[in-house]
What does this fold into?
Amino acid sequence: MTFRIHHRAVTRSTNLDAREGVPGDVFTADEQTAGRGRLDHRWLSAPGANLMLSAVLDVADLPPEQVATLPLAVGLAVHAAIARFLPGGEIRLKWPNDVLVGGRKIAGILCERNGDGVIAGVGVNVNQTAFAPEIADRATSLAREGASTSVAEMRDAVLAELDRVHGTWRTAGFAALQARYAEVDFLKGRNVSVRQTDDDETPLTGLCAGVQVDGTLCVGGRPVYAGEAHVCAY
It folds into this structure.
């Protein structure tokens, strides 16, 4: 796939910008004023320090059940891109949309359907070293992990890996990527609690058997289609 990059110094959200794009368009910015992640969580980023990227990916003619697994494929691409700069690092994927290093979040993914495409929003902490108090103990960056790179280099790595992984996923589905996902799955084999909605007062808890071929998370023998998972303290 040939990517066409559209960059702004400041924007509300690269995912919002990408709604005007077509497959192959990539929208980036130095600063977002209304960046967000899943469940409308805010995406906090120091201006110019991190990668904020939204790529429009082609999903035309694909069945909905395959499209539902695209965020996991994007996660694998981002994982591989980060691994280029942190070889040997403890980089893991936390279903459905986080990339962790040493248990701390270094990247997040937000995919949204838009016509014949899916907007794959990617945020990677590159050179930010100080974080807001509410996330300081849960966030990290390439710089904090000892890697020296630029946002542009991180962007190019993400797009290269996204091109590779998206091609495999489009041709053969998530089944071709599931084994690799299992190798870097942060939740598999742990006792987890999953809130399936923002106001879920009875989270599902149990032993996590990992991500299944249909993209669901198996918790206590039950499939979870969406939600926010946390490792149980006990």
In short: The chain has a mean pLDDT of 92. The chain has five helices and twelve strands. The CA atoms of residues 193 and 230 lie 5 Å apart. The longest strand covers residues 104-114.
